[in-house]
Design goal:
Elements (H helix, E strand, L loop, with lengths): L1 H12 L7 H4 L4 E3 L10 E12 L9 E12 L5 H14 L10 E15 L6 E13 L1
Parallel strand pairs: 1-2
Antiparallel strand pairs: 2-3, 3-5, 4-5
Length: 138
């Protein structure tokens, strides 16, 4: 599982160009939770679930089905920056099949759902998107 988390981060870190998620989030993508007092905008990714998948006719699981959630947070009064960063993030990961998951083949990374909300008191925008990731042991 750690291989998948590292691969997700490395793909983010390897994105280049002015419109890349790495640049738009200032390199700030954290696993599970952001440090206290993180500078906006930033992203967080976490594991929602992990269940094995079986191939018909076999007795052992050779596939894993993960649900990964990304959150992008921004305190700007306008939603423009959070939407721009979120679009770059989904462009990077939608149908991604090239994660470098050593020992595994990445079959797909499919967007399942997304939502944009704004916390009333703090005014912080929160865009979240969930991906279904299927991997198979090589």
């Amino acid at each position: 599982m750690q291989v998948l988390f590292n691969s997700i981060y490395n793909k983010f870190k390897g994105s280049t160009g002015a419109d890349s998620p790495f640049v738009l989030l200032g390199g700030r993508l954290y696993f599970t939770e952001a440090p206290q007092e993180s500078v906006y905008p930033y992203g967080v990714y976490s594991l929602i679930s992990d269940v094995p998948s079986w191939i018909f006719g076999t007795s052992e699981s050779t596939m894993e089905n993960y649900l990964i959630q990304f959150n992008v947070f921004d305190d700007n009064s306008s939603s423009t920056d959070v939407n721009t960063a979120s679009k770059a993030l989904t462009d990077l990961y939608d149908w991604c099949d090239d994660l470098n998951t050593s020992g595994y083949s990445n079959i797909y990374m499919k967007r399942e759902m997304s939502n944009l909300t704004r916390e009333a008191e703090s005014g912080v925008w929160n865009f979240f998107v969930q991906y279904r990731v299927e991997t198979q042991v090589k």
